[in-house]
Specification:
The structure is a single chain. With 217 residues, the chain is an alpha+beta fold. It folds into two domains: 1-140, no CATH class; 145-217, no CATH class. It has helices spanning 19-26, 75-91, 149-158, 166-170, 181-190, and strands at residues 46-48, 61-66, 72-74, 120-121.
Length: 217
């Protein structure tokens, strides 16, 4: 990380609402004072992000979540928002409540399976490489896939394919397992940026595929 995590707070710092702007600073693409992020829902806490110092010693800081659109909020507010939509869908279905980004209104429901997007926790400690575990957001060319990871694996398993435990596979730094090939074919057909089978999937004889390119929302 080229910027100093211990940089003191100063009046030149600006709030950023999009994750890729924060990441630009963390990886040296943006010069100047460190930006910071606040929860765009409760508006009363700064988000904990590895490499981003607080604006003061007294400010409240909370764990943050980034959405596929790149907008960020504290994880507490994100959990409450998801829960409120689920309750409304179950108790007041006539209202047709939809989970969407409160800032840009991007739909946060997988169109193909109806599951909610989970978002991704912002890295608050560890090496700078942790920041690269967040999938590409839409301003960076990313997209919300048609179905969630679990539903993809369930569909493949239903076809009689013996798969590893889903949680073990999606948390590995590289998707290289031979048993994952059916999933790769699914992704290639549903998500154009996964085209190039097999070299794009980090299989033997090709360059490994970073997990940050995996649409793990």
């Amino acid at each position: 990380m080229s910027n100093n995590e211990q940089q003191p707070a100063d009046h030149g710092r600006q709030e950023e609402s999009l994750w890729h702007k924060i990441k630009d600073y963390l990886f040296g693409a943006q010069a100047g004072p460190a930006p910071y992020a606040e929860c765009n829902i409760c508006m009363n806490a700064e988000l904990q992000i590895h490499g981003i110092p607080p604006t003061s010693d007294t400010v409240e800081r909370k764990r943050g979540t980034v959405l596929p659109c790149g907008h960020m909020m504290c994880t507490d507010c994100w959990i409450k928002l998801r829960a409120s939509i689920l309750v409304s869908q179950q108790l007041r279905p006539h209202l047709n409540a939809r989970l969407e980004c409160p800032m840009c209104k991007l739909s946060l429901t997988f169109a193909g399976c109806g599951c909610q997007v989970r978002g991704h926790l912002l890295p608050r400690d560890g090496a700078a490489a942790a920041c690269d575990c967040v999938p590409a957001t839409t301003p960076e060319g990313g997209a919300v896939p048609d179905r969630c990871t679990e539903c993809r694996y369930s569909a493949i398993a239903a076809q009689g394919v013996d798969m590893f435990n889903v949680s073990e596979i999606v948390t590995r730094p590289y998707i290289t397992d031979v048993l994952s090939r059916p999933l790769h074919r699914e992704l290639a057909s549903e998500w154009p940026s996964w085209a190039g089978w097999p070299s794009a999937f980090g299989l033997p004889g090709s360059d490994p595929l970073p997990r940050s390119n995996h649409p793990d929302w």
